[in-house]
Amino acid sequence: MIDNYRSDLGAAPTARRQLAELCFGVVRRLRSHAAELAAEHDLSFLQARALWRLEQPLATGTLAERLGLDRSNITHIVDGLETRGLVTREAQRDDRRVKLLTLTPAGRAVRAALDERIFTTQTLFESLTEEEQATLAGLLTKLLEGAAAPDPAPATA
């Protein structure tokens, strides 16, 4: 099903609006699938995302940034992972105020299991050929890199 968007006036969507809505639709499907698999491991979607981001030890604040969350919201997520024995939280040597998060062996095992299941059971991209998937990946990369670029300075009169 394609998410159709119409403005309040009933006019056809602009190309940019349509692209945004299609991207949101893809993200919703990916998120829903990942959330279902996270629940199989008694994890929230955000806890699963945190495990994916912890390929290497990270400071709590860095993890929050990479997840697009406020630092105040990450504490609850990390608390749950730590309680389950999936991560450890240790003070960083050169700044004891900074807590470094590291996956435990159990955390690495759950992360690997989630990775395996998500990418072997995700069917969203199966209708695309390998070439189309590569093209889509290139276009999405270009979009994200362009979005990360600083906004140009406003024109002066």
* Shape annotation: globular
CATH architecture of the domain at 15-121: Orthogonal Bundle
CATH superfamily of the domain at 15-121: Winged helix-like DNA-binding domain superfamily/Winged helix DNA-binding domain
Radius of gyration: 19 Å
End-to-end distance? 48 Å
Mean pLDDT across residues: 84
Q: Please write the string of helix (H) and strand (E) elements.
A: HHEHHEEHH
Name of the CATH class of the domain at 15-121: Mainly Alpha
Helix content: 55-70%
Classify the beta-strand content into a percent band: 5-15%
- The largest sheet has its strands arranged as 1-3-2
Per the CATH scheme, the topology name of the domain at 15-121 is: Arc Repressor Mutant, subunit A
Which residues form runs of ≥5 with pLDDT under 50?
A: 153-157
* Biggest sheet record: 3 strands, antiparallel
How many β-strand runs?
3
